[in-house]
Amino acid sequence: MTTTPDAETRPAEKPFWVSWYQHPGYSPFELNAPWWVSGMRMEDGAETICAAVMATDEEAAREAVLASFDHRPEGVVWRFTTEQAEGWSPFCDRFERAAWMPWPASGAK
User: Fold this and answer.
1) Where are the strands (E) in the chain, listed by range?
2) What is the pLDDT of residues 22-46, one digit of tens each?
3) Which domain holds residue 73?
4) Considering the domain boundaries, does residue 46 fall inside one?
5) Three-point CA angle 106, 53, 66, nearest 5°
6) What confidence tens digit (pLDDT) does each residue in 79-95 have?
7) Measured between alpha carbons, how far apart are the two ends of the chain, in Å?
8) What phi and psi values does residue 105 have, to the nearest 5 degrees?
9) At 55, phi and psi to the nearest 5?
10) Is residue 55 part of a domain?
11) Is 78 within the bounds of a domain?
12) What CA–CA distance (Å, rounded) separates 76 from 92?
């Protein structure tokens, strides 16, 4: 019989700020977390995406992004994956919260 770890034995999720280059050839994605197009790389038209995700570590934060694509992209160029302090909010004047953006209440703004 396989058991799943309960909340007491699983590593706690922490907030991460993640950014990558979204190339025009990537499939659509649906990330159930706040994300924004923050710019574009002129030489190849790749959009710069910033997202806030809850994850146990950097690898899990990147996996949350990769798993959101219809077809998992290869060779993603990550700009950064940075753990944030408990209670951190990704929302500010530049990255405003939209009604569809879920985020833990402790990090709400």
Assistant:
1) 14-22, 35-40, 47-55, 78-83
2) 999 899 999 999 999 999 999 999 9
3) 14-84
4) yes
5) 165
6) 999 999 999 999 999 99
7) 43
8) -55, -35
9) -155, 165
10) yes
11) yes
12) 26
